[in-house]
Amino acid sequence: MAECPVCGAEVELTADAVVGELMECPDCGTELEVLGVDPPELGEAPETEEDWGQ
Ligand SMILES: [Zn+2]
User: Fold this and answer.
1) Measured in angstroms, how far is the CA atom of residue 9 from the centroid of ligand 1?
2) How far is the CA of 54 from the centre of ligand 1 (A)?
3) What would the mean pLDDT of 1-14 be, rounded to a whole number?
4) What pTM was estimated for this model as a whole?
5) What's the alpha-carbon Rg for the chain, to the nearest Å?
6) Rounded to an integer, what distance in angstroms lies between the CA atom of residue 38 and that of residue 27?
7) Under a CB-based contact definition with an 8 Å cutoff, are residues 43 and 19 in contact?
């Protein structure tokens, strides 16, 4: 289990979670990024930007 950095809820990582994977906190709905899997660590995902090169 990892802790949601936003609301503090315990979030269960999937067994095949990899670093960089994005998931959603089931409690607060924030998009989270897997920062580590051993031990499991979650961070707030950076906001998606769609202005690639333009
Ligand atoms: Zn949360």
Assistant:
1) 5
2) 33
3) 95
4) 0.81
5) 12
6) 22
7) no
- DSSP state, residue 31: E
Res 54 pLDDT > 70: no
Distance from the alpha carbon of residue 25 to the mean position of ligand 1, in angstroms: 5
Is residue 22 domain-resident?
yes
| More confidently predicted of 4 and 48 | 4
| CATH number of the domain encompassing residue 38 | 2.20.28.160
Indicate whether 40 belongs to any domain: yes
**Where in the sequence is the domain holding 39, given as residue range(s)?**
2-44
Count: domains in the chain: 1
Q: Residue 37 Cα, ligand 1 centroid: separation in angstroms?
A: 18
Distance 53 CA to ligand 1 centre (A): 32
